[in-house]
Design brief:
Blueprint lengths: L1 E3 L1 H13 L4 H7 L6 E4 H10 L5 H8 L3 E3 L3 H16 L6 H12 L3 E4 L2 H4 L6 E4 L1
Parallel strand pairs: 1-2, 1-4, 2-3, 4-5
Length: 129
């Protein structure tokens, strides 16, 4: 299983609207055996920019993904990552920290095009497409 960052869902939507595969579709075709998961944080971020305004349309786009909810272990990992970053003077957005904490706790690689933030997190496996 691989954890998709919000950038993946956004790019999939864009590529679908254009009707031509782009970098994310090409990458996903190279790893067909991977089952995609998303953090509940990604659900919120994706929903913020979702064009259609019904929950039914929105939730239908989430069907292919296992949605991972935040629990106490993920919250603790979030706190550790945040504390470490603050001690090093590194600031990463809270949503990216939650996504990273989810990936680390579930031993998943994060698929993203936003490597600038994620590569600064100790112990996180990151794959760019």
């Amino acid at each position: 299983m691989i954890l998709f960052d919000t950038t993946v869902l956004i790019d999939l939507e864009r590529e679908s609207q254009r009707g031509t595969p782009g970098p994310v579709v090409s990458f996903l075709q190279s790893i067909p055996e991977e089952h995609p998961a998303i953090s509940v944080i990604t659900v919120g971020e994706f929903g913020e920019g979702f064009v259609e305004h019904t929950f039914e349309a929105f939730s239908s786009r989430l069907v292919p993904y296992t949605v991972i909810l935040i629990d106490e272990r993920i919250a603790w990992r979030y706190a550790l990552i945040s504390r470490e970053g603050r001690s090093k003077g590194i600031r990463i957005g809270d949503n990216d920290l939650w996504i990273a904490a989810t990936a680390i706790e579930h031993r998943l690689c994060v698929l993203t095009r936003n490597t600038r933030h994620f590569n600064r997190i100790t112990g996180l496996l990151v794959q760019e497409y």
